[in-house]
Design goal:
Shape: flat
Number of strands: 4
Strand content: 25-35%
Radius of gyration: 16 Å
CATH architecture: Roll
Length: 88
């Protein structure tokens, strides 16, 4: 994925109303321990003017659907986990 946003990736920020907000894709985690679910490629809107990042209602709806159907949709992968306090 290119770091240069395409015109279709730029939009008006719902928070501050200024143009230039862009669509980005991130990973989000939900739960912890053996209930941890990581969802990759979650679309977020990020605004350089006000600094806010937010999820659309449609994205939130899909996240809830993935969480409900995690047994069918998720695959299990090993993941390294570090605690922030241990690094300080």
């Amino acid at each position: 994925m290119s770091n240069n946003p395409q015109p279709e990736d730029l939009r008006i920020c719902d928070n501050c109303g200024k143009p230039g907000a862009r669509l980005r894709y991130v990973s989000r985690s939900y739960g912890k321990g053996d209930q941890l679910l990581v969802i990759e490629n979650v679309p977020i809107i990020s605004c350089p003017s006000c600094g806010e990042s937010y999820l659309t209602a449609q994205t939130l709806h899909v996240i809830e659907q993935i969480k409900r159907e995690r047994q069918r949709l998720a695959t299990t992968r090993p993941v390294a986990v570090a605690e922030f306090a241990a690094a300080a």
